[in-house]
Amino acid sequence: MALINADTVQSYYYFDEVSVTCADPLGCAPLACLDTTDLFVSNIFTPNADGYNEQFWFSLIRAEILSYDYTIFDRWGQVVATGNEDSGLWDGHGENGPAPEGVYYYIVSAQRKSCELPVVRKGYVHLLR
Questions:
Q1: One-character DSSP codes across the chain
Q2: What is the pLDDT of residue 98?
Q3: Domains defined for the chain, CATH in brackets
Q4: pLDDT score of 31
Q5: What is the pTM of this model?
C-alpha cells in the first residue's frame, strides 16, 4: 500500500512493499546471466618447467567456460601474447621467446555456457621464473 500526499508544498511517499529486479541495459534479466558467476584469474605463475603453475590461467566459478580470449601486455603497453580456446593458455612466451620476469597486464573475456553476455576481467599477473 502506498500513501501519496501531493496536495501540499511538501510531499510524502510511504511504501510498505518494495522489490528489486536485476536487468541488463535492455531491461532483460535471464536467470543464467544474473551475476551468480565470477571469473577467477591467477595473479602469479611460474613457467620454469618444474610442472607446477606453468601457465597463466583462469576459471569461472559456478559456470562452465564455452569460449575465451585474452590479451597480455607488458609494462609499456605492448602486446606480448594473445590467445583463445584454440591456442590455449599463455605459457610465458612471446614472439621473441620467453618473456622476462615481471608484472603484465591482462584482459580476459570468457563466454559462459547458456549466457550471451561474456565475463570480462582486467588486471595484473606476475610472471616469475
A1: -EEEE-SSSS-EEEES--------TTS---GGGSS--EEEE-SEE--SSSSSS-S--EEEESS-EEEEEEEEE-TTS-EEEEEETTT-S--SEETTEEPPSEEEEEEEEEEETT-SSPEEEEEEEEE--
A2: 94
A3: 25-127 (2.60.40.10)
A4: 56
A5: 0.71
